[in-house]
Amino acid sequence: MASPRKTDRVSASRSATEARGETFYPGPSRTQLAAYPPKERWDDWVELDSRAWPQRVERHYMLVPTTCFNCESACGLLAYVDRETLEVKKFEGNPEHPGSRGRNCAKGPATVNQVSDPDRILYPLKRAGKRGENRWERVSWNEALDDVAARIRRAIVEKRPNDVMYHVGRPGEDGYTERVLAAWGVDGHNSHTNICSSGGRAGYQYWMGYDRPSPDHANADVILLISSHLESGHYFNPHAQRVMEGKKNGAKLIVIDVRLSNSATHADHWLAPWPGSEAAILLAIANHLIQNDLYDREFVRRFWNWREFMEEERPAEPPTFEAFERTLRGLYATYTFAFAERESGVSAAVLAEVAEVVASAGPRLSTHNWRSAAAGNLGGWQVSRTLFLLNALTGAVGVPGGTFPNSWNKFVPRPIHTPPHPRVWNELTWPQEFPLSMNEMSFLLPQFLKDGRGRLEVYFSRVYNPVWTNPDGFSWIEVLTDESKIGLHVALTPTWNESASFADYVLPVGVGSERHDVHSYETHDAQWLGFRQPVLREARGRLGQAVKDTREVNPGEVWEENELWIELSFRIDPDGSLGIRRFFESKKAPGEKLTVDEYYGWMFENSVPGLPEKAKAEGLSPLEYMRRYGSFEISRKVGAQHEAEVPEAEIEDVYVDPRGRAYTRAPKPSGPNVVPVPSPDPDDQGRRPVGIEIDGALRRGFPTPSGRLEFYSSTLKRWGWQEYALPTYIRSHVHPENLAAGEMPLIPTFRLPVQIHTRSANAKWLDEIAHTNPLWLHPQDAGRLGVATGDLVRVETRIGHFVVKAWVTEGIRPGVVACSHHMGRWKTGDVGQRQMMATVALGRDGTAWGLRRVKGVEPFASKDPDTGRIWWTDAGVHQNLTFPVQPDPVSGMHCWHQAVRVRRAEPGDRYGDVSADTAKARKAYEEWLSRARPAVLYSPDGTRRPYWLLRPLKPGREAFALPGWQPLRPKA
Ligand code: SF4
User: Fold this and answer.
1) Which residues contact 417 (CB under 8 A, 6 or more apart)?
2) How far apart are the CA of 726 and the centre of ligand 1, in A?
3) Which of 69, 91, 236 to mutate to test the pocket of ligand 1 (most atoms within 8 A of CB)?
4) Backbone phi, psi, residue 222, to 5°
5) Which of the residues 31, 770, 771, 934 has an alpha carbon 20 to 30 A from that of 58?
């Protein structure tokens, strides 16, 4: 079934609107709102002072672009800098930004609250008592950096590079810090991704070699979301506006979510299945497409690795496409609507109706799975694998209205210095038990340290709050307070958080308007580059005042990290003898420190196609252009890269294997215009993979081992997961058959639209809007429990319990409860955030830990009169402390959903009570670990991990060798 390609509907509708004489902002946003200040007037924009009313008092502003740092979407902001006082008065959207197009969610403008937050950390602090006592003294940056640098230097010199770890929450940048760690030669990058999105990523990775989707919602006929992108999610605001654009153009919206999310409220079809059954639904839809010939045969024939599947798994059959189609029908025949109804509880008739809607889209099917089911369930990664199966069947890949691989719609510029890959492997983050994990096994770090698998000399938590964000936070406290396990904890953070209380140094870093970063995200079928900058530095620059160090313009001694890392690296290797310093030196003035101007100036001049020309046309240097506009659109309509013919320059001594995989001796092209791809293995003659041969033409294909979309993953098979090699359904750990009597699933994975984990709690406007996280409870369950809205309930997990208020609502599936993880912030004393952290007493009896609220949020006097007007007392309940770690054995994702018992609170229970036992948590860790299939037993070739899989800060090939490996079992 091949649908004719239609024109770009968004462009067509814009043309019609333009023809009617309506105005668009002329920049990349092309939005119809004409309310943006034209860029020609950004140096002196005049508005009337609303507070001076009825006098008409003019205020003159300099509008300086930067990028929001409050979630991963990286929307453009415009800082309104008062020309008279050089204060930032407000933030609004940047209409020059191609991703966000001048629009923001509430968290963007709330950046101004974070700048002026009276509780923010302004100076470097060193602990003055025991870790966790929250007694601090001010130190100089010099003292702090000398201490940290000396410890890192010692670890490197003494050949203990794995003793240095950088654990990042919100990166907000592409590659800068990975480059720093590579220069130090440490495999010390740790991320939060395995408690966030790695389940979703794994499903995409096994299909196409890219780990994220880039849906073209605006041009879709049908939008299928297993996520809540209209209120949160990667990349929330940029995607939400394009979902609405698609709907405006007639697209149908299908939302699969256990909760009536904001997204579900806008859906044409909302399905609320049993949690973890999503893949069963998707397979039933796929089966409908397959059995009724509603799929794109030509696309499947050309781009799936069906031949590999037939040859390896059906050797008795002829390896023809017709035979494969017959096999395909048989493979999925059992996934009927009736089967999906039994698993999900959604009626077969509704599923059939939705399947017809999906089928009607043809290739204009945009889909997205993020966190949600993929992050909640054992086997959740198969949710995104089965979701993408629908795109792969309908040919909705890389076409208008379809779903693109993220890397085609993203651009990562080359930096001025590129250090080599580290030559070491860190088993604290990439342990042998999880050779296929998508990202670092970060949430198991406390257990690994308790196992004695390693020790950390220096542990950086950077814009990250491991105690609060991870499951089993009490185990984090146990290791963070044990100096034999963590020698030095350095918290790099713009705001107080629970984990910073357990640090040795708290070093203040900037919010979104106080730091430099570059980033680019897959918001639509285009490539753009965004630039975050300290806005007062640029404002001073426009006034002709030179700024050498960002601390000169930031509040207190808040420092941006770019400069901080350069300084720290110089102190680690002051004479250059370790070979580190050279990566932080100026090219223009060798031996001197690289400046951020030179770093980004070089990047924008040499590595961003089209930018130098565009800047020149305006009489600007590329850096001046980015400082003035904050973003640059590199290309639009990147299109179907898999169809692109391999260029002549890459054809040299080409070998095409019998399955059509083409290899070349031509070197990889360098230069800025190359879509970044991971590298599958070379052939046995050392040629690199370059594409695939289809019907006589050499096309780019996908960066998978086969070069095609991998319906059949030989990687999964070879590494011991044969049963999951095809898109399939794995019953979740919260499937009814895995629940004990009286247990029900708790859904803790959803965000609140106006809060983001730790970072937004210092924004008063957001705190006023959202400051609680009640337990969603269906009226049937509430009736059974005898509970009404506002009543206290006890939610018991397998390692503890928390006490929370009930919210009785029909917006949740009966038999399931839900509670947002975006709440429950706490502090143990006076130090910390006062507008969104409750004060608690933290208690311990052996391995039994408890947390009880002493007082809630209260008004307080500060330089901001609004803090005296705080009317809320609630700050929510911290549920994650009561969750054991539950690593998925394949993707490594923490499976967030919990099997819980809910009952009325007991006498003596108080709102916000939390208790958990770390001995029970340890047992749960051991149970889940036993599901793993370790590399030492299952590696087919003596490596730790398939080299072609993505890995942040990928070490050199030599580090992939598994020490002492023996082929203990026959090769699969
Ligand atoms: S918090 Fe809102 S404005 Fe900021 S990047 Fe995310 S979606 Fe955009």
Assistant:
1) 179, 183, 582, 583, 584, 594
2) 36
3) 236
4) -135, 130
5) 31
